[in-house]
Amino acid sequence: MTDLAISPARNQNRTSKIVLRWILYLILGIFVIFYLMPLFVMVSTSLKSLEEIRTGDLVSLPREVTFDAWITAWSSACTGIRCEGVRPFFWNSVMIAVPAVLISTLIGALNGYVVAQWRFRGANLFFAAMLFGCFIPFQVVLLPMARLLGLMGIAGTIPGLIFVHVIYGLGFTTLFFRNYYVSIPSELTKAAKIDGAGFLRIFWSIFLPLSLPIIVVTVIWQFTQIWNDFLFGVSFSQAGTQPITVALNNIVNSTTGVKEYNVDMATAIIAALPTLLVYVIAGKYFIRGLTAGSVKG
Amino acid sequence: MASILDIKNLYKNYGAQEILKDINVSIEQGDFLVLVGPSGCGKSTLLNCIAGLEPITSGTLHIGGQNMTDVSPKDRDIAMVFQSYALYPTMTVAKNITFGMKVRGVDQATQALKLQEVAKQLQIEALLSRRPGQLSGGQRQRVAMGRALVRDPKLFLFDEPLSNLDAKLRVEMRTEIKELHQRLGASMVYVTHDQIEAMTLATKIVVMKGGVIQQIGTPAEIYNRPANLFVADFMGNPAMNLIPARARTNGTGTRIEIDRKDAAPIVLTDEKNRDLPKDVIIGVRPEDIAEPDFRTSQDAQHADCMVDIVEPAGADTFVVMQLGGKQVTARLHAETTAAPGHVQRLSFDLGKVSYFEPATGQRLN
Amino acid sequence: MTKWLEHHLPKLVLAPSFIAVLIFVYGFIAWTAWVSLTRSRLLPKYDIHGFIQYDRLFASLRWDVAMNNLFLFGTLFIVISMVLGLILAILLDQNIRTEGAIRTIYLYPMALSMIVTGTAWKWILNPGLGIEATVRGWGFENFKFDWLVNPDMAIYTIVIAAIWQSSGFVMALFLAGLRSVDTEIIRAAQVDGIPTWRVYTAIIIPSMAPIFLSAFIVLSHLAIKSFDLVIALTGGGPGFASDLPATYMYAMAFSRGDIGQAASSAMIMMAVVFTIVVPYLYSELRVKND
Fold first, then answer.
1. pLDDT tens figures, A151-207
2. Chain A residue closest to C96 (CA)?
3. In whole angstroms, how far apart are CA A209 and each of A204, A205, A212, B70, B88?
4. Which end of chain B is more exposed for a tag (fewer CB within 10 A), N or C?
């Protein structure tokens, strides 16, 4: 009897659970569309002809797929007066990002190793000073940096931009490595000291082999930051040394001639591709960098 | 014979904070010195100072007759086993053991030979190609020992090496370390907070508190004649009973009175110790309070006591009562008839008691 | 000598970075602060003339707009990102089968440059051919969505794009926080018969206070530094309707040739960041040292 009395309620409960589940998936799905929509629009626009774009349907698939816009974007789109496409700027970004990432990661690893494992008086102060450097709005250093690069004779050059990115990347790279190395027991360093190993030997033989995950996190973080940078790029570059973000902005905002939206979109995707690729391949490490950079900061 | 380790007037400060105060210790070849004390007493800092991992503020430190006060750890001819074992995580067991030799530029053949020797000694031959992450706690412990043994140093240092093991393994490894010490005849300094480890392993114990040495002595000396209330309370489990009492010396000896809540004071007569101050704290080990028929010491004195709690513990039965305002534990025979709420006749072995000055805590007899 | 080197090597390794931070962070801040007290225009001058640049700054209509925009943009951006991020995190925490894929999709905008984000949304929001035209094409002839070119609404397009870019990141932060709550507490609550929503509101969310704080710090930091997005999306326009302090500073420094204004506006930005970040850093470092 009791069983019968209860079962309708139970059924009702189960249906309401299923309905709730559907609503849940529906909401999540709506947001999937919200986040994917701009990417979809970019890709589909970049594959349309200008005529098709003028009919004004943002969300439709291209009736006829054409890669013309991509070819134009890569090799002949105009940024200001030059019309060589985005290719030289892509390589500028590569030439800025690769050395800047490597140098800042290496220095950050050494700094983090010292701060975490070779404590001396003032090491914490150093770390605090460094950490604060992560948070300053870079506008506050733009003017003096512009003058200093001029004095050093590297204003508007790629080495100048590498220099700037290394300097202002150090805070984060040091932070990442310090937080990683601080969780390694100091007894390891002690044991190695008794075994006769010195400062560099311990770093090289014991800490570096342990560091692969944090190296990946740091490299991804730095690469994303530097590749996506616009402020330093636009402030400290010249016509020939601009990174791709600056070139993209110039192409999109160039007022000469017909507005080629498909070329704009193709350029934007080219500019986004390296970091998107990194994200797809190593998303786990990307997220870890983001959370480490904020939660532990 | 020159001592293997000789520490004189060692002080260690962190800023204004004194961590170690006037430490004087020396041991001979083959000694097993245990530094014991509660956490924060400075015992690990002292070990780190001996290793050269922490600079000392003042004083001198000789190892094997050489002044090592300012010598870096690698040149002190020591080896150390750490609490967390500190095995290099990315290296195999073999590489862990040979890393020190590699750094020192020992040739490959010698490295291999010594590795085999040590591996055989510790029965870890099968583990040599594994990484620390693949080992159990006990195995890691062995590898850490192997890394120390392979150095064949003048002095071995152990920093709470057993505290990360479970209880059973800890006892096994304790025996093994003792066996190793006897076989090698090596000199060792061993830090622990576990007084049983200290008692079982040491040839010499240093009891520390607040950066100050409380007592140095053999395990028997420390156990039977603790220098002060701290040592008396810290060494031994269950702890020594420390009971406030009144003493009055007369013709036959000293009359000791211990107050009780619901009954007349217990009166005991100590014929050996005279000239005690009026107020004392009497220290009695639980095993020195027994049922009269089991102990026949000539110094035994009898008294009837009300039993509060009876705790059977297998080999023994512990009985708890109230004396002098303190809980007092007696270690009785397992088959005792003592029952809670009943009066039990107990004998106090006055030949083994300690007396302490209540104000300073120092030993009187 | 080798002993000296051995002893001091760690400090020697840190020294270059320390000097770099000293010069390029603190020295440069000092330089900017100094110049903000001078009459510098096209070229920096070094005679101090008090707060005249700040007087000019606060009298400037454009700066007033930029600060109001920062306040409006910052508030909306932070509040909506946090609310959205929290809701998405809680929804994703309900044993969703495709969680990994959904999480990846929600978070990918964070990998993009703000310039790319700005370019994409500029295209989508463009009234001639974007959403407005598309919806009209579907038959809603009177549909109007011209925020991008409407001086009163342009700042909100920046809010939309910024939320699109950052809310997934907030979601990831909160999701990690939800997962780090002690499961025994949750089980205990379930055994006590507390409904799921109460478990969230009474137990889980309060225990995530530190994550709310770091999300807030990161988002406000992003908001104050926002520059690229404005440049790419609206260029600060129409007119200077969607200017932010960052774009104001840049315009003064590099196109208007007014270094004094650039320096003083940068110092105000710095002060805003300071008031938010320094107490946070201080408490973080103090906890770590304990």
1. 999 888 999 999 999 999 999 899 889 989 988 888 999 999 999 998 999 999 999
2. A25
3. 7, 7, 7, 31, 10
4. N
